[in-house]
Amino acid sequence: MKFILTMLLCMVSIAVLAGPLDQKKAESHLKAVAASDIEALMADYADDAYMEWVGGPLDGRYTGKTAIREVWTKFIAANDKQPRPANVGKLVTYGNPKGVSLHAEAEYGGKTPVKVWHVLVYRDGVLTSETWQIAPAIKVGG
Predict the structure, then answer these.
(1) Is beta strand 99-108 parallel, antiparallel or unpaired with respect to 114-123?
(2) Mind listing the pLDDT tens digit for each residue in 100-111?
(3) 2-134: in CATH 3.10.450.50
């Protein structure tokens, strides 16, 4: 019985670690993508963060803030530096004492619409890695 109680307490504390703070950061990050707000985007990343952009003309691994800024600059320029209408699905959150991972599906409009599967990883409240998977077949919210 004591073991079961201990396990339940551990599960509750893990759920608390994957809490609303990281969810709000991820929501703000995705809003900054849609708004073409590079300064808000860059404020989220750890200095040694990396981004996996899978598919499309920006395909590649970008390591460090300078490289990540360059890829976001290209993405924003492709839409004439204008905001993109966005439809972002529900953020799903998983966490443990080492960090929190969130994922969501999204559609971004603009000159060249794009459908994406996002995975964001936060450690100590800072975005350490991001996967931007181009996914033309995604049905947001579906």
Answers:
(1) antiparallel
(2) 999 999 999 999
(3) yes
